[in-house]
Amino acid sequence: MKICVTATGTTLESAVDPRFGRAKYFIEYDTDTGAMTPHDNTVNLNALQGAGIQAAKQCADLGVGAVVTGNVGPKAFAVLQTANIVVYTGASGKVSDAVQAFKDGTLAKTEKASVDGHWGSM
Fold first, then answer.
1. What is the spatial distance between Cα 20 and Cα 90, in angstroms, rounded to a whole number?
2. pLDDT tens per residue, the chain (122 residues)?
3. Are 70 and 91 in contact (CB under 8 A)?
4. Residue 105 CA from chain centroid, whole number
5. Fewer CB within 10 Å, N side or C side of the chain?
6. CA 111-117-122 angle, 5° bins
7. What is the DSSP string of 54-93?
8. How far is CA 43 from the centre of its chain?
9. What is the pLDDT of residue 117?
10. What does DSSP assign to residue 96?
């Protein structure tokens, strides 16, 4: 399965970015092959509005089955849900830690947005 992990950098050793829509990068990771591809999210990081929606569309275009992040807002969550992408929030540490937690099944599936919209940057 391909998953998308929000990240502050381009490697598995980068920290998980706690923001979904305004994450600096998305790390696309294939849990079957171990293949990893970073994707720049600068366009959404600097967006005045709609960052979460556009980020969710980007993840859908990547064909991922799950998103692993710190938090997700209501509009992004709705788009991800419509695209049948499972969302896991509360991830922290390194991207590699989040990937391992996903593989181990220790992340809880998120049933709704974990923050209000426009909660700001960190």
1. 11
2. 999 999 999 999 999 999 998 899 999 999 999 999 999 988 766 666 667 888 999 999 999 999 999 999 999 999 999 999 999 999 999 999 999 999 999 998 998 877 765 544 43
3. yes
4. 17
5. C
6. 105
7. HHHHHHHHHT-SEEE-S---HHHHHHHHHTT-EEE----S
8. 15
9. 57
10. H
Would you say 54 and 92 are in contact if contact means Cβ atoms under 8 Å apart? no
Is the Cβ–Cβ distance between 80 and 53 less than 8 Å? Answer: no
Domains of the chain: 2-104 (3.30.420.130)
> What tokens appear for 118 in the block?
């426009």
Q: Token pair for residue 31?
A: 């849990």
96-99 LR contacts (CB < 8 Å, sep 24+) = 96/12, 96/13, 97/16, 98/5, 98/16, 98/68, 99/3, 99/5, 99/12, 99/29, 99/31, 99/68
**Encoded tokens for 53:** 């929606």
